[in-house]
Amino acid sequence: MNELNLILLGPPGAGKGTQAARLRDDFDLRYIATGDLLREHRARETDLGLRAARYMASGRLVPDDLVTAMVAEEIEDAPGGGFLLDGFPRTLAQADALDAELDRRGHPLSAVLLIDVPDDVLVERIGGRRQCPDGHVYHVIFDPPAREGICDHDGKPLMQRDDDKPETVRERLRVYHEQTEPLVERYAAQDLLRRIDGTLAPDEVYEQLRATLAASRLEQRA
Ligand code: AP5
After folding, report:
1. Could you tell me if 150 and 123 are in contact, meaning their C-beta atoms sit under 8 angstroms apart?
2. Of the listed 22, 161, 165, 195, which one is catalytic?
3. Fewer C-beta neighbours within 10 Å, C or N terminus of the chain?
4. Nearest in space to 187 (alpha carbons), one of 78, 111, 133, 79
5. Tens of pLDDT along 139-154?
6. Each residue of 180-206: b (16+ CB within 10 Å) or e?
7. What is the DSSP string of 180-217?
8. Atom nearest to 201 CA in ligand 1
9. Are strands 111-116 and 82-86 parallel, antiparallel or unpaired?
């Protein structure tokens, strides 16, 4: 089977983490989510975590050099099946660094999956998001757990992320449009971009992703 090297691109709250959980179950991909990795570093109070914390709390991006070094290490460890990047790259400089790293390792990108959702829907989604300490994600209305406030997978309590406060969400959206959205044009010009309508229900979004990946594998074989 062909190696799949994928980027999940999209604004905060688009459903990248929700869809990544499904993709990980169905495809043998190394999952690299920079937001999750940075939160782990912050919880362990590593040097990187302590440096990243103030950027994350205010909704700004962590400096490129810190994030890029962290991702390079993760890709280095990825087994042959391919990888799924969630939340990286987020700037043109990060995309350049990723290209250089993949060129060096001879692992080209297969596709960039853009989950497209308008800002007003994102604010509603992020406002209702709850997650457990191990990262299982729910929504109080759209994807509630069986028992309110408790994770279905591990029985741990669900919490709201500290950067999900309304003023921080507004800043994250502003930063997305200013610094991350230019990547859409870049990857479209490289014919890697695949647009997914993220406003649909999670199962329908996943069906689009699967169909896109099936087409992408066929294209690679042709
Ligand atoms: P990160 O953790 O990557 O956050 P994000 O990109 O802002 O994305 P989110 O996790 O908020 O949303 P998501 O798209 O995963 O949506 P989810 O599936 O949870 O980054 C956090 C911070 O870390 C950044 O602000 C930055 O400071 C730093 N950082 C990370 N990467 C960096 C980088 N590369 N460079 C620099 N700094 C970096 O879904 C959201 C909610 O909606 C959930 O409640 C879910 O249940 C619900 N939902 C999902 N899909 C649907 C649907 N189809 N219909 C209805 N509800 C849905």
Report:
1. no
2. 161
3. C
4. 111
5. 999 999 999 999 999 9
6. beebbebbeeeebbbebebeeebeebb
7. ITHHHHHHHHTT-EEEEETTS-HHHHHHHHHHHHHHHH
8. 53
9. unpaired
Q: Write down the catalytic residue from 39, 42, 130, 172.
A: 172
Residues of the chain with pLDDT under 70: 1-2, 77-80, 218-222
Please give the structure tokens belonging to residue 23: 């993709």
| Secondary structure of residue 7 in the 3-state scheme | strand
- CB distance 39 to ligand 1 below 6 Å: no
CA-CA distance, 198 to 104, in Å (whole number)? 33
Reply yes or no on whether 129 is catalytic: yes
**pTM as predicted:** 0.94
Q: Please tell me the residue having the least CA distance from ligand 1 atom 21.
A: 35
Residue 115: its pLDDT value, please? 98
Which helix or strand (DSSP H or E) is residue 137 part of?
A: strand 137-139
| Longest Cα–Cα distance in the chain | 49
